[in-house]
Amino acid sequence: MSSPAPLAGQGALAGLTLGCLADGRPVDLGAALAGRPALLNLWSYWCEPCAHELPALQEFAARAGAAITVLTVHSDPDEAKALARLTDLQVHLPGVEDGAAQVRNAVRAPAVQPVSVLIRADGSVAKLVVRPFRDVDDIAATVAAELGVTA
Questions:
Q1: Which of 37, 17, 19 is nearest to 106 (CA)?
Q2: Which of 1, 42, 94, 132 has the fewest CB atoms inside 10 Å of its own CB, making it the most exposed?
Q3: What's the whole-number average pLDDT of the chain?
Q4: What is d(CA 11, CA 112) in angstroms, rounded to the nearest whole number?
Q5: Are 29 and 107 in contact (CB under 8 A)?
Q6: Strand ranges (DSSP E) for the chain?
Q7: Strands, E, within 30-146: which ranges?
Q8: Which residues contact 34 (CB under 8 A, 6 or more apart)?
Q9: pLDDT, tens digit, for every residue of 6-32?
Q10: pTM for the model
Q11: Once rounded to an integer, what is the mean pLDDT over residues 114-140?
């Protein structure tokens, strides 16, 4: 039996469902991200470069508004520590729990953190950014160059 073909606009994340970090409800990533460019940030509570980057991602998301979806993907099974870390950082971004590295595997990202996945509106992966962003301007310049979204 073969796997179903991805639905239009869902790309590499078609059929991938993860729990919302805030309330545990299932989130179909392909469907949730379809139709708009997205930045997925793979991070873990214990990652210091991630902790530096998350507030800048929040600032970028506020600047960009509805032009792009910014979604955090916690890549460690300890969800409680992820929530505590976000509270400490005062970061309030949409996020999903991915302790089994399903997103990393789906987009073929290396097993390092942080990694940001830039996704086109059609669901295809435009670029894997395998380094921490320096600041909000670095994020904005990278997103503009790779996705054409200015913020």
A1: 17
A2: 1
A3: 92
A4: 23
A5: no
A6: 17-20, 26-28, 38-43, 69-74, 95-97, 115-119, 125-129
A7: 38-43, 69-74, 95-97, 115-119, 125-129
A8: 7, 9, 10, 123
A9: 334 458 898 999 999 999 999 999 989
A10: 0.91
A11: 96
